[in-house]
What we know:
Blueprint: H1 4-26, E1 32-38, H2 48-54, H3 58-69, H4 71-74, E2 78-87, E3 90-101, H5 103-116, E4 121-127, E5 133-140, H6 147-156, E6 161-167, E7 170-177, H7 183-193, E8 196-208, H8 212-229
Antiparallel strand pairs: 1-3, 1-4, 2-3, 2-6, 4-8, 5-7, 5-8, 6-7
Amino acid sequence: MINQTSTSRVLTVLLLLVWGSAVSAQEPAPKTLNYAFVSPNTRENLKIEDAIKGMNSTEETQLRMKAINLSCVVSSRIRAYKALGAWSDGAEHSVMVRVHSDPATLRYLMSRMGRDAKQKYVIYFHPQPGGPDDFYVLRVRRRARDLVALSNALEQAGIPFRTLVPQGSTTVVYIIDLDRELRDKILAAAHKLRARVSYEVGDADLFGDDLRAQAKIKFEQEIKNYETKNPKLPPPCNGKTVKKVN
Length: 246
């Protein structure tokens, strides 16, 4: 026969299990440091020299500030950097965004930026153990300020898409490897450029549409879905309070 003490212990364990399950169910998705890329450019067939000039343009500055001011909306500090997106047959000035957030919030942020910048696509990377994609970061000092030469060197190494972010005497190169086919080429390029290289695994997503009008519809649907689930989001920062956001 089960005595009263044993019964109390069993009930206590059951209550703890139920309470623990309820807390776990209510916990938000963990926030990690994410990387995302979006351009203010809407011109076609931009040359790399023009894209580099565009890094100091008004539209570039405005998009960076728009990203930073969204810090207040998601209650997480957003950093935005001038960037050069380059590929085998083109280039464009871009903004590289770093933010601690969950995947849903990251997708919402990039949808807002993609819509406001009238973009066809945006892309982001969310670190995740066992994820299907790789994200490489190369820190290059040699020829670091010559973005054309550096981009050409990466192209010759067989790296078709890359984003270059100048930071002081160093240029940081970000590469998203969606198909996990570039590892050997990236390591060889890093060795040749004497660059420090690191990588993470996670989930990357390029989303939007080839047609700007359709991309806008997709971005707005993402925004609507998120704001429906989070109806009391605060407004963007006004440029003065952004530094107070953690």
